Amino acid sequence: GESVGLHLPTLSVQEGDNSIINCAYSNSASDYFIWYKQESGKGPQFIIDIRSNMDKRQGQRVTVLLNKTVKHLSLQIAATQPGDSAVYFCAENERAQKLVFGQGTRLTINP
Amino acid sequence: SAVISQKPSRDICQRGTSLTIQCQVDSQVTMMFWYRQQPGQSLTLIATANQGSEATYESGFVIDKFPISRPNLTFSTLTVSNMSPEDSSIYLCSVDTGGYNYGYTFGSGTRLTVV
After folding, report:
1. Measured between CB atoms, which of B45, B108, B111 is closest to A98?
2. Of B55, B95, B58, B103, nearest to B79 (Cα)?
3. What is the Cα–Cα distance from A12 to A85, expressed in whole angstroms?
4. Which of A59, A98, B20, B26 is 20 to 30 A from A111, alpha carbon to alpha carbon?
């Protein structure tokens, strides 16, 4: 069945460094991808999205890269701050139907 | 983007009882989604709720255990029935905000503990 997975369950980076969170997806028909941030006790918060007709999209301090050839998605966070500490999920979507979530990566920012 | 109010935010329940979780959206939406997030895990879709029709359940979830109501385009409820400790999870509702740059919006979740 459909699944979206992540390579690393945890990631620690120094404050101010850049971080890269990776995600592999298996449904080649997925046409929309979203990155979410989840802080303790809260629901997932939208970070950035990308459609399958693009390979890169930038937001404020974040960049999402999509490689459809190898079905890989990544989230780059520039100049990480303590407030970036959270669990990050990727999610995929086919034709505006249900979202399928990856396993999540816990990002820890060290001072 | 839409704003979702979900309640209760948390509850501790006795096994064998049922809990109904409410989800209110500040705008009309076609589809509402209910997810479960077990401790330390990712989100798993329970069902999709459309107004005026039966909810569509994902594999492993059944209506008798998780009955859903969708009486109008801004409201839905999820009931967790005959609870056991294995039902201890965070339950979240979500809506398709319907636009690029917004994704799907989530409520803050209901943290359920069954004792």
Report:
1. B45
2. B55
3. 9
4. A59
Mean pLDDT of chain B: 94
Q: Say yes or no for a CB contact (<8 Å) between B108 and A34.
A: no
Q: Where are the domains of chain B?
A: 4-114
Residues of A in contact with B49 (CB under 8 A): none
For B5, which residue in chain A has the nearest alpha carbon? A43
Task: Determine, for residues A43 and B109 on separate chains, whether the beta-carbon distance falls below 8 Å.
Answer: yes
Compute the distance between CA of residue A101 and CA of residue B54 in angstroms, rounded to an integer: 24
Average pLDDT of chain A?
91
A99/B45 touch (CB, cutoff 8 Å), yes or no = yes
Tell me the torsion sign for CA atoms B80, B96, A89, A31. positive
| CATH dotted code for B4-114 | 2.60.40.10
Decide if A73 contacts A25 (C-beta within 8 A).
yes
The owner of tokens 């100049």 is A79
Mean pLDDT of B5-23: 98
Question: In which band, very low, low, confident or very high, does the pLDDT at A4 lie, cut at 50, 70 and 90?
Answer: low
Q: Would you call A96 an interface residue with chain B, using a CB distance cutoff of 8 Å? A: yes
| pLDDT tens-digit map of B60-110 | 999 999 999 999 999 999 999 999 999 999 999 999 876 677 789 999 999
